[in-house]
Design brief:
The chain is of the alpha/beta class. Helices cover 34% and strands 27% of the residues.
Length: 296
Amino acid sequence: MIVCLAANPSIDRLFGVDRLTPGGIHRPAEFAQVAGGKGLNVARAASALGAEVRAVALLGGHAGRWIAEQCEREGIELAAAWAEAETRSSLSVAEADQGLTEFYEHGAAVTPEEWSGFTELAARHLPQAGWATISGSLPPGAPADGYVPLIRVARCAFDSREEGISARPALVKVNAAEAAQLTGMADAFDAARTLHEAGGGGAAIVTRGRDGAVMVSPDGRAISGTADAEGRYPVGSGDAFLAGLVVALQRGAGWDDALRAAIGAGAANAEQPGAGRLDPDRAGAVADSVRISPAR
């Protein structure tokens, strides 16, 4: 069982247009809408890869009920805590040749009682996890260290700029921009090594988009992985990467093969509209082509 926490979920919408013109009227040629936010994207991708998954989410209002219904349609087991305020929405606009323009709501503040209800629910489900993922931002109103006690409950893969690395998760995964912000180091290998040490010796991974990812494994070995694959829809690829990683580890893969699986899942996600959606066969094919190299 993989348990995915979604403390700040979102309805994620994607519009595909030929060109985004400020002040203009646009009629999207493509549209996708998913129960999103990083935690639910991880859950969707892990489920697509064949894992047994349970999402634990903090939901609110009509939007929260839509997310719960969507999870049921997709066959994602959901345990939900409820807040009064509406769950947020996010919008990504994909231009044919210009990449993505993204709009992310912060979301409404949760009360101390609502946050406590979510953490109590999470603490009941986390001990059942072979792996747990905690990813994304905290909702407004949650304590700054809100993830810290949850990390200590399970073998956790942590993907967030929020406080939590000091709680020594088994794995830290962030993108290059987040790694630079957290460590002050622009070089991905240096940042990964720093995160490895700060996290008490757990695995540390820095993703670099089309340039793959670098990893320092728990034994301190530093490697990079790259593949010749890219797609038009990178939203959620980092979440699919994390899903591929923990699914592979749950199945007993070593760190090199887990990194291959993660890169394959991230690349497959980028080829389909809708965050956390992927073709598992395509993910496997890309994983087989990943090149692993030692740190320079």
